[in-house]
Design a protein that fits this description.
By secondary structure, the chain is an all-alpha fold. The protein is built from 9 helices and 2 strands. A two-stranded antiparallel ribbon has the order 1-2. Helix 6 runs antiparallel to helix 7 and helix 7 crosses helix 9. The longest helix has 31 residues. The protein starts with a helix and ends with a helix.
């Protein structure tokens, strides 16, 4: 049941934040491997990107990749949050009755790795679909998928089962860092809010406040890995399924730093917070409330 509750919580958050994921993906691919001032800027900021995508691609364009996004959130976060809940319930994240930062970090990272590997194929498809756009505002490599099922079939037919896990070398560090940061700061923040007695112990404002604190740390820690992950998933491949722009995680990291500088790793930072911030807050809030509801009626 912990896995179902974790997946359901993440899907609820995804319904609200998917348009921000589309914006974030486009901004991270804009000016890929190009120095500042040498490429056309289609998306000046988060709000301009929203306006541009809505105007050119239509409102439906802001919900591109929603279906694989929901599948990914249910699988990845179901496994991630469900595994963490089991570890937490078994008492493995506490030392002397208090939340241990080291133990929550390790538990969060381990849970994140398992979830990232299992959800990688649909994240690959989600990235392809969200980058697809009208040619006048297109950024990054443009695939021609007609939907999630079509994309999975095409990738499997052309590159086999391993092709579905292309880019997972970036997904593992991305999610493990994000998960470790999110779950460790959430547990610690929730304990801090309770200790300060700002709200009643069982108030819904406790997980909401903890989620808000956690979201800031998640975005700062995760954005560089998120940029690399997006680019590795979206890059064009040859007939053997090998990337034509990057050989892997470290190659993408070094090329991005060389061509775009440190700011290249933080492209779309505003969009990342507008997306990851609410998603972190909502998913952790829903997860905490669903667990309390389940405990009440079990």
């Amino acid at each position: 049941m912990d896995f179902v509750l974790g997946g359901a919580a993440a899907c609820g958050a995804c319904l609200f934040t998917n348009p921000l994921e589309v914006v974030k993906t486009r901004m991270q691919l804009q000016g890929e491997l190009k120095s500042r001032g040498t490429y056309q800027v289609y998306y000046r900021n988060v709000f301009h990107a929203f306006y541009t995508i809505g105007k050119v691609d239509g409102l439906a364009g802001l919900q591109k990749g929603l279906v694989p996004g929901l599948f990914y959130q249910f699988v990845m976060n179901g496994v991630r949050l469900g595994s963490y809940a089991i570890i937490e319930s078994a008492g493995h994240i506490h030392s002397n009755g208090r939340v241990s930062a080291a133990k929550t970090t390790v538990a969060g990272a381990a849970a994140g790795v398992v979830g990232a590997v299992m959800g990688s194929p649909v994240y690959l498809v989600k990235t392809h679909l969200q980058s697809q756009s009208t040619s006048s505002i297109a950024v990054g490599h443009q695939y021609e998928h007609q939907g999630m099922v079509h994309a999975l079939r095409v990738i499997y037919r052309e590159h086999g089962i391993l092709g579905l896990w292309r880019g997972s070398s970036a997904a593992v560090p991305r999610v493990s860092v994000g998960s470790a940061t999110q779950l460790s700061t959430f547990s610690s923040s929730k304990e801090l809010v309770i200790d300060l007695q700002v709200f009643p112990q069982n108030s819904w404002l406790v997980p909401l406040s903890a989620g808000m604190i956690s979201s800031v740390m998640v975005v700062l820690a995760m954005t560089p890995f998120d940029v690399i992950s997006t680019r590795l998933y979206n890059q064009p491949v040859d007939h053997l399924g090998k990337g034509q722009l990057y050989k892997g995680f470290t190659d993408c990291l070094s090329k991005t730093l060389k061509k775009e500088g440190l700011t290249g790793l933080y492209k779309g930072l505003g969009a990342s917070y507008f997306r990851l911030g609410p998603h972190t807050i909502l998913s952790l809030f829903f997860w905490d409330e669903l667990r309390k509801l389940y405990q009440k009626f079990r």
